[in-house]
């Protein structure tokens, strides 16, 4: 990518704009790095206000995937895709298959999976046009819903955070606020309830709240995310879209730990320092939410859920290592996590740093 094309220098290897007039498909696929292998990352289907907004999102998300896959110990690079539009009205078999052909055209440099607005059934449709897709249904030989191990990994990250801050991974009696109880959040709530935590939730979708209430009647609800961050919490878990942690939120946040499933939780550079200065332990999002990519990456080798779950369980140990490095070097955990990921990408490059499929 060059500044002349996009007005920015992001360091990405490749960005592809995809358009199919017949189906209404408008998509962007971004490959940040293939130094460790083909880039893997989900496809987000979202009604972005502008193409520029979609581009900003896919660039940030794909870079995050490169760091996430490196820190998770996977031999995969980082990529991401976005489809522009409302999935409730625009999604169709023809559109998904057209998108699958664009993925196929990259020859394996990018492997897709589920993300916000896309589901296992969608991956099965996309797979009719490309072999470079994961997160397919069990009937199709896939890993199924990656939300399962995403939530499990976030839960392990919470346990590691609790041990680092309070000396024990025990979450019983801890008050945890979950913002966003969709695909990942509602599974995370189940883990927390089972662990004996007191759970408070919020979501913009009333049906998501209703599902949690039916499954866990003892869970408390609040009207919105603003009320949640101001609540008396031990742990705050952002599990919706990115940018949840901005200056205003940090100012009023009362939780001692932030650990959630959302990608790119820091609204801008410097927020991690504000959290650190307030004594709030931030578990880097791309570390703790890597259970999903661990799950779908296992599909590339013939999916075995127990093997994938064991691998996702190592998020606990990786988080402890990140917190220890941060303490030793006097830096926020995000900086420590970045250093570990960058070290792996630098020390273990392939003979050809650009994967050609």
Automatic annotation (TrEMBL):
Q: Which Gene3D superfamilies match?
A: Leucine Dehydrogenase, chain A, domain 1, NAD(P)-binding Rossmann-like Domain
Q: Which InterPro entries match?
A: Aminoacid_DH-like_N_sf (IPR046346), Glu/Leu/Phe/Val/Trp_DH (IPR006095), Glu/Leu/Phe/Val/Trp_DH_C (IPR006096), Glu/Leu/Phe/Val/Trp_DH_dimer (IPR006097), Glu/Leu/Phe/Val_DH_AS (IPR033524), Glu/Phe/Leu/Val/Trp_DH_bac/arc (IPR016211), NAD(P)-bd_dom_sf (IPR036291)
In this protein, the active site sits at: 80 (proton donor/acceptor)
Q: Which residue intervals define the domain Glutamate/phenylalanine/leucine/valine/L-tryptophan dehydrogenase C-terminal in the entry? A: 144-353
Name this protein carries in UniProt: Valine dehydrogenase (NAD+)
The scientific name of the source species is Prauserella shujinwangii
Q: Name one GO biological process term.
A: amino acid metabolic process
Bilayer-spanning residue ranges: none
One family name in Pfam for this protein:
ELFV_dehydrog
What superkingdom heads the lineage? Bacteria
Entry-linked PROSITE patterns: GLFV_DEHYDROGENASE
């Amino acid at each position: 990518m060059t500044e002349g094309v996009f007005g920015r220098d992001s360091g990405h290897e490749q960005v592809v704009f995809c358009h199919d007039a017949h189906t209404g498909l408008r998509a962007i696929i971004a490959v940040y790095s293939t130094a460790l292998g083909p880039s893997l990352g989900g496809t987000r289907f979202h009604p972005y206000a502008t193409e520029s907004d979609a581009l900003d999102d896919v660039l940030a998300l794909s870079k995050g995937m490169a760091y996430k896959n490196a820190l998770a110990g996977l031999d995969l690079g980082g990529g991401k895709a976005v489809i522009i539009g409302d999935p409730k009205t625009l999604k169709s078999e023809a559109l998904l298959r057209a998108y699958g052909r664009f993925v196929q055209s990259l020859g394996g440099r990018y492997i897709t999976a589920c993300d916000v607005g896309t589901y296992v059934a969608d991956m099965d449709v996309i797979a009719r046009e490309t072999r470079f897709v994961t997160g397919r249904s069990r009937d199709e030989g896939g890993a199924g819903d990656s939300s399962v191990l995403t939530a499990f990994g976030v839960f392990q990250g919470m346990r590691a955070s609790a041990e680092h801050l309070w000396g024990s991974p025990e979450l019983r009696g801890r008050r945890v606020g979950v913002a966003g109880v969709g695909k990942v959040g509602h599974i995370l709530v189940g883990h927390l309830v089972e662990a004996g935590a007191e759970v408070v939730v919020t979501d913009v979708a009333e049906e998501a709240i209703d599902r949690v209430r039916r499954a866990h009647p003892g869970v408390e609800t609040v009207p919105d995310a603003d009320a949640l961050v101001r609540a008396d919490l031990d742990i705050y878990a952002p599990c919706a879209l990115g940018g949840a942690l901005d200056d205003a939120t940090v100012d009023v946040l009362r939780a001692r730990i932030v650990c959630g499933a959302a990608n790119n939780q820091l609204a801008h550079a410097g927020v991690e320092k504000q959290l650190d200065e307030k004594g709030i332990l931030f578990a880097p999002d791309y570390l703790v939410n890597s259970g999903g990519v661990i799950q779908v990456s296992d599909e590339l080798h013939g999916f075995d859920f127990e093997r994938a779950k064991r691998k996702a369980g190592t998020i606990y140990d990786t988080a402890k290592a990140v917190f220890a490095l941060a303490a030793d070097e006097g830096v926020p955990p995000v900086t420590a996590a970045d250093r570990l990921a960058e070290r792996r990408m630098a020390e273990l490059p392939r003979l050809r740093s650009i994967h050609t499929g």
